[in-house]
TrEMBL record:
Name of the protein in question: Glutaredoxin-3
Molecular function GO labels: iron-sulfur cluster binding; metal ion binding
Pfam families from the UniProt entry: Glutaredoxin, Thioredoxin
InterPro entries per UniProt: Glutaredoxin, GRX_PICOT-like, Monothiol_GRX-rel, Thioredoxin-like_sf, Thioredoxin_domain
PANTHER family per the UniProt record, alphabetical: GLUTAREDOXIN FAMILY MEMBER, GLUTAREDOXIN-3
Gene Ontology, cellular component aspect: cytosol; nucleus
Domain of life: Eukaryota
PROSITE patterns: GLUTAREDOXIN_2, THIOREDOXIN_2
Species in which this protein is naturally found: Clonorchis sinensis
Region (Disordered): 43-63
Length: 312
């Protein structure tokens, strides 16, 4: 099933695909969150009072409606506000108490050892199917070490923008805070396989199978953004002169691009050299294709070829 792009919801609400998304403010006429309680989607139902779990002896008070908070008690979800946008599934999530739902909370969750994040929107029917499948996967014992998070792509728009999420459903898998796999659309078979690989990293077969898995990750990574730069450091803090120079060239062309700090992941750093047959960094990719390193980028910039190549 194709993903549904996130755009002007007032015009595209009834469509199942073909929308686009500008992560700014939500349409006030449309509920932005599908609250899951005991596995049931309660779309469009406003919460007019505090919600408390059954048998709430010794359970914390969910708090006032003025705060967007999340709760996970006995594997059930009790958001205290209709715009609560992050849901944690499974027993591992119960370690989280009351937190304000914002980019900071997601940043803390992102650093967990194994994490599966489902970016969704309540108006896209594909998202319901993916959420149901992830709920089943989260309940399986073999996935007990994985934390499953659902993020409303519109309510937490800053997170969606940071991770280049422009369609729903989008499922992103993280290991130690690093994205290792991304599935756009309701591809249930691929989602199930990716979660299995995340929970069993040491049982994927021989070295050849491990290499195949790495190549799949690298292929997804170089396509994470239409223009992708693998560099040492970050745009705000480049860690080598070559990376700084290529950043200056890209910024001079006012092009939108994403970066990956190869100093944070040795497996990616070494694997990409072999994958692309290019031994040095930085490396610039456009639409998943290697452009080259600093020297080639300089030559293309001087001739005007680079600006043309970056029109994606």
């Amino acid at each position: 099933m194709e993903p549904c792009a996130l755009e002007s919801k007032a015009m595209q609400r009834a469509a199942t695909s073909g929308c686009s998304f500008h992560p700014t403010t939500a349409d006030p006429r449309i509920p932005t969150t599908a609250m899951l309680v005991e596995g049931q989607a309660l779309r469009g139902r406003s919460v007019q009072r505090e919600r408390k779990p059954p048998n709430n002896k010794n359970k914390p008070d969910p708090g006032s409606l003025g705060e967007a908070s999340i709760w996970c008690i006995n594997s059930f979800l009790y958001p205290s506000h209709q715009h609560a946008s992050v849901f944690l599934h499974g027993s591992a999530a119960c370690s989280f108490g009351r937190r304000e739902v914002n980019a900071t909370l997601f940043s803390n969750v992102r650093d967990r050892l194994l994490l599966v994040v489902n970016f969704s929107a309540d108006w896209a029917p594909q998202c319901t199917h993916v959420a149901d499948v992830l709920k089943v996967l989260a309940s399986e014992q073999e996935n007990s070490m994985i934390e499953f998070v659902e993020v409303n792509a519109e309510s937490v728009a800053d997170v969606s923008k940071e991770l280049k999420v422009d369609s729903v459903p989008t499922v992103i898998l993280f290991k130690n805070g690093t994205e290792v796999h991304r599935i756009c659309g309701a591809n249930i078979a691929e989602i199930t396989k990716a979660v299995s690989n995340l929970s069993h990293p040491d049982t994927n077969g021989d070295v050849e199978s491990d290499l195949l898995d790495l190549n799949t990750r690298l292929r997804n990574l170089i396509r994470r953004s239409p223009v992708m730069l693998f560099m040492k450091g970050t745009p705000s803090q480049p860690r080598c002169g070559f990376s700084k120079q290529i950043l200056e060239i890209l910024n001079s062309l006012n092009v939108s691009f994403d970066t990956f700090d190869i100093l944070t992941n040795e497996e990616v750093r070494q694997g990409l050299k072999t994958f692309s047959n290019w031994p040095t960094y930085p490396q610039l990719y456009v639409k998943g294709e290697l452009i080259g390193g600093l020297d080639i980028v300089k030559e293309m910039a001087a001739s005007g070829e680079l600006e043309e190549a970056l029109k994606v």
